[in-house]
Amino acid sequence: MEGLSGGVGEFRVKVRKKARLVDEDKCIACGQCAEKCPAKVPDQFNMGLGLRKAIYKHFAQGIPSVYTIDKENCIRIKKGAGKKKKPCGLCEKVCPADAVNFDQEDEYIEIDVGAIVLATGYDLFDPSGLSHYGYGKIENVVVSLEYERLMSASGPTGGHLDRPSDGKLAKRVGFVQCVGSRDLRNNDYCSGFCCMHSIKEAILTREHDAESEVYIFYNDLRAMGKGFHQYRKRGEEQYGIKYIKARVGEITQDEEGNPIVWYEDVEEGKVKHLALDIVVLATASVPSEGVGELTTVLGVDLEGHGFIRSDMTHPSLTSVPGIFVCGACHGPIDIPESVAQASGAAAVAAEIMLAANVKEH
Amino acid sequence: MEETRIGVFVCDCGSNIAGFLDVPDVVAYARTLPNVVFAKENLYSCSETGISEIKNGIKENSLTRVVVASCTPRTHEPTFRSACDEAGLNPFYFEMVNIREHCSWVHMVDRERATNKAKDLVRIGIAKAALLEAQESIVANVNKRVLVIGGGVAGLTASESFSRRGFEVVLIEKEEKLGGRLNDLHMLYPHNIKASHVLEQKIRNATSSPLIKIYTSSVIKSVKGYVGNYEVSVEAGGKALDVTCGVIVVASGASVLEPRGLYNYDSHNVITQLELEKRLQREEVNAGNIAMIQCVGARTKERNYCSKICCMTAIKNAIIIKEENPKTNIFILYEDIQCYGLEGEALLRKAKEAGVRFVNYDPAEPPVVGEGSVKVYHKVLRREMALPYDLLVLSTPMIAREDAKDLSKLLRVPTDESGFFLEAHVKLRPLDFATDGIYLCGSAHWPADVRESISQALGAVARASVHLTRGFVKVDPIVSTLADEDLCVGCGLCAALCPYGAIEIVETPKGKKASMISVACKGCGVCGSTCYRRAIKMNHFSNEQMSAQIAAL
Q1: Can you tell me the ipTM of this complex?
Q2: What is the pTM of this model?
Q3: Which residues 314-333 on chain A approach chain B with CB closer than 8 angstroms?
Q4: CATH 3.50.50.60 is held by the domain A124-286
Q5: Which residue from A minimizes the CA distance to B15?
Q6: CATH 3.50.50.60 spans which residues of chain A?
Q7: What percent of chain B has pLDDT over 90?
């Protein structure tokens, strides 16, 4: 979104559709281009744990099912800039649908709409700045999404819990909660869903390997949604998750690359440590990177943390009439509540659309 | 009789299928099967190219039945059915075979056996396809009136939103006055808005709308019908009232546990958090030492859940009391403090800064209440403490209303193990019931605060309005039918077992007979498999079709 004019019931939005250098109408997503492309780069979808090509689909079931050229990494674009004879271009040569188009340009589209719904989501906190947790330095300290990809059958390890440093099968896994949340130095709020996803990941770890050991280091275990407390108990009773009430102070590593978690066992009042094969950081939910730019274009207010400001008694409304909000872009939230809010935002937007219809006819 | 000419399309799904089994071999095999006159491999059957290949295949080969072997019918069965329709073939002359989830994805390591299994499944699909019958979609009109059950914050919000869209609403409230739980509350977290202000505004909006008819002191007596056409009998203030409506929203709320027998509860010096709210409303709180215990009767064997909103309620009330009288000593005894969301932690900090003390107890060693003092083992300080109190406040969970079971029976919708209403899908359909036409919001679903109740209510309106705005419901004809009226003895087994209320037993000149309400039927097949007289036939899953599939295996 690059521009907005008009007001409720008669907005005009200006959208820049970035060139993907592949014709969407022609591409049949056969994948021959990616097979031949010689440029390999870290795959964002797999959290950089695997590689993809410079012509790629974000993930297998992505919609639309169309390939895109990553201009930063395409050999033809990078090395051919300003040259008459361009290198590579293999994708263009092998494409059976004649869909690759290096001359494609960004497209500007103007759309008239009556109402706008913001559902731009959130980002995850980058823990690289927390030197005491060693993320980025200790290879076997990963964030939850990286761990999700390691466990996924379609992920970079085919679902094997091969740890990043040496590919050794991870048998002892620790989850550290509230990384960057409930922390005045970073984000003072609770992200609400991390306790549950750590419990889920711990259960899945045990389902992968019944002999594995799983530990969750938590402050308060927040399992307040429908069925969540039962899930927490099931994790403990059926899957043997060890819940340890402790704020982790530091993560170090031994010579074999095993991360060591140092923590205060609150119940015993002692500083203890535990060597593990892999440590998973449950990081905070933070405002998405582009939300500031987007809300500046829209004139929508943010609240103190940088999420979109919404109203307590009208939770779908933003500061601008006709622009509504749902999901994690106005604060951390889980899936069912997001889905409910999305329907709610549709309801209030529809009220405006009906009013606009009445005015027109 | 017309010749049966079957066309088979086998999808590569890029490399999702073709990467793990031999698609050309499956295609060649299909050509050898009875009635198959055409077979083709598609790179993606669901793509525009694939669809036009299917449509051309139908026209050029005069196909009378189509089989696509690809992915799950959940995603693309409608796509392929409409391709058949567009090519002039009845959409129910189509059969789908899943060789992705059932073959290539689960047998990635064994190409040969995955291929053989795909052949088996294709053969079964073709056997059924030969016997498929044409079907026409079932269409019924939708009554545009809405019934909202419950006049609390969720029900009022939903009613108001429906009326703003121009739909008539009948709002039924069991109590004498509107407002539900909000009547009992003092302030709402996180911004300390007066509950009465929110409530007054909601009631004003609802009562001033000419489209909303409100009946207090009213209960539902019976519910008949199905999506689009419900007939509801209500006892409204002692008089009988019949309501016809197209959709129903359940916003009946929850109760709060009364902790009889727990922690010396006496409703006098030992009260619930809800009673504290009422005392705060009336400015009747005047105690030097207050202790609050969280999770009273919650997270136990009997009520194995967290009630979600009680920690924030306790913190909010503690802050209000501290701000009024900073000298009051307040201790909050908790297991896990639940301050989710953007503002929760800030309030927790504010309470601590105001001097509210938090004591972490172990549920295995719960606090012991004596006369004027509570003994508790402080987990973090690791010592026993005796906390004096003039007022002890017990935070008890929201529990399902006693009459929720009755309502669930009347509406034929399920409840969960804790007695709250059970939604259609825990993640993706939190506001729908599995039965079309009935929707859910607020604490009837699960403990919710006011903000959550409002957004859920608006969401339920959006869901329900799909039917109201369209004005008709169109249902797949994959439903049960009474194929042979003479065989039916009116035993009523089918009607009793139907989870959707789609069968009634009616008097006919030939005696009692089952009568199917096709619009309400979901085609689950329970009636068909129960009918020992074999009078019931499941469209699209007939005994003959299923037998042919088994025989082909």
Answers
A1: 0.92
A2: 0.89
A3: 314-316, 326, 331-333
A4: yes
A5: A30
A6: 111-121+288-360, 124-286
A7: 92
